[in-house]
Specification:
Number of strands: 11
Structural class: alpha+beta
Number of domains: 3
Oligomer: single chain
Number of helices: 10
Strand content: 15-25%
Order of helices and strands: HHEEEEHHHHEHHEEHEEHEE
Shape: rod-shaped
Helix content: 40-55%
């Protein structure tokens, strides 16, 4: 498909528009001039007819044809562009014609009803030579055609130069856009140097660059984190396998080695499963909402699953508030399980883990609160990032691969909600919001 040029397209349309406009104006000028000539010719016919009327009136009483012809000859001899014949009934009283003159003759006949000559009504027949007027009209027509054509060509030429000048900012924008990208992180196009019509597009492009750079940085960090997380269990499995194969081992030792390998394989499988889920959520997957369920009941069901962990640390689970909502029960329980597991892991022994459920118009809030060491304020904004651990030295951090809270954030997004985290005065509060789909 042939590429269109804005410059040539605008120049062509400028020329077409100018030609159309000038053509209409020229046609109007030509038509007005021709109409003016027609009015002038009608006025001349009327003036000559009045003169003939006056001469006939003077010579009819008593009838004097010689005097009539003499007076008309005196007048029309000085008007070679007009012929006249005068009739009274079937008798021709007067006839004047320039036989040696060739041209375009216009005829006009008029009966003088109020005048008679020898008892017969007088009829005047005039012919007017319009050769001069036709010549002027032809010259005017060709002049107007030339003016319209020349004007269109001039406008097309100047329009092309103006369009080329006007498109320079686009060429500059194309050059700056070509220079933007990962090779120059943080580089943006200066909006103020361009016209106001281009500024919204440039701001959108700058915003797109920001999102692309963020995604690119996230992808690089993600690849590094995945490689780091998978490298450790794989290295352990390889090293242990090499040791076991290096010399004969009893059945009990091999069974223990296989159990260790199975544990590492389960960890790898969990990482891969969680990454597949996050990939699906990042592509915009939405939660499949079921019939309305009690959020408190779902918390109790998840709490029963973590009952052994709660008893191990002498923790109690308290649920405050309730609400009924259309949710994906499986995803909701997974998010609650991750939050409870996180709270149990870092809660002070013999304390309370509290789940607070609140409703604010069309938004529902589920927060899990535990007592324990405060989270560094600098780490709070990163808690929901992939493979992020607020404090790797904290108990149990090495046995988890850092995707639990990331999955909570993904489930919240799939329900049209967000996440939040605060830590102050020995209380850590982490949770998410859910949007009411029926609102």
């Amino acid at each position: 498909m042939k590429t269109r040029s804005i410059q040539s397209t605008l120049s062509r349309w400028f020329a077409i528009q100018t030609l159309a406009g000038l053509s209409i104006a020229c046609v109007a000028v030509y038509g007005t001039t021709r109409w003016s000539f027609q009015l002038k010719q009608e006025e001349e016919f009327e003036r000559h007819s009045e003169l003939v009327r006056h001469v006939v009136a003077e010579t009819r009483t008593p009838p004097n044809i010689d005097l009539l012809r003499h007076k008309l000859d005196d007048y029309f001899r000085t008007h070679p562009d007009i012929n006249v014949s005068l009739w009274a009934g079937k008798s021709r009283l007067y006839f004047s014609q320039r036989a040696d003159v060739k041209g375009n003759w216009l005829s006009h006949a008029q009966t003088l009803e109020d005048l008679t000559f020898e008892g017969n009504p007088v009829e005047v027949r005039l012919t007017l030579d319009s050769t001069g007027d036709d010549l002027l009209l032809r010259r005017l027509g060709w002049t107007l055609v030339a003016a319209a054509s020349l004007g269109s060509m001039i406008v097309a030429l100047t329009g092309s130069l103006i369009v080329r000048r006007g498109l320079k900012p686009l060429k500059l924008l194309a050059e700056q856009t070509a220079n933007a990208g990962p090779a120059q992180p943080g580089g943006r196009i200066d909006v103020e140097t361009f016209a106001s019509e281009l500024q919204p597009w440039i701001m959108q492009f700058n915003a797109l660059l920001g999102r692309v750079e963020g995604a690119y940085a996230q992808l690089e960090a993600f690849n590094a984190d995945v490689a780091h997380e998978l490298r450790t269990p794989l290295a352990n499995m390889i090293a242990q396998t090499e040791i076991e194969l290096s010399q004969p081992r009893p059945i009990a030792a091999l069974r223990e080695a296989l159990s260790s390998q199975l544990e590492e394989a389960h960890r790898l499988s969990a990482i891969v499963t969680d990454m597949l889920f996050l990939s699906k959520a990042d592509r915009g997957a939405q939660a499949r909402r079921t019939a309305p369920v009690s959020l408190a009941d779902q918390v109790r069901a998840v709490g029963e699953f973590h009952e052994a962990e709660l008893e191990q640390s002498n923790l109690t689970l308290d649920i405050e508030g309730d609400a009924t909502l259309h949710v994906d029960v499986g995803l909701l329980r997974r998010a609650l399980s991750n939050l409870l597991s996180n709270a149990i892991r870092y809660a002070r022994p013999e304390s309370q883990v509290q789940v607070v459920i609140r409703r604010d118009h069309a938004e529902f809030t589920i927060a899990v609160v535990n007592e324990g060491d405060e989270v560094d304020p600098a780490a709070l904004p990163h808690l929901f990032e992939r493979f992020y651990r607020a404090d790797k030295s904290r108990s149990g951090s090495s046995s988890h691969h850092g995707l639990g809270l990331t999955i909570v954030a993904a489930i919240a997004r799939m329900h049209g909600g967000t996440t939040f985290a605060t830590s102050d005065r020995g209380l850590t509060r982490i949770g998410f919001t859910l949007a009411d789909a029926s609102a």
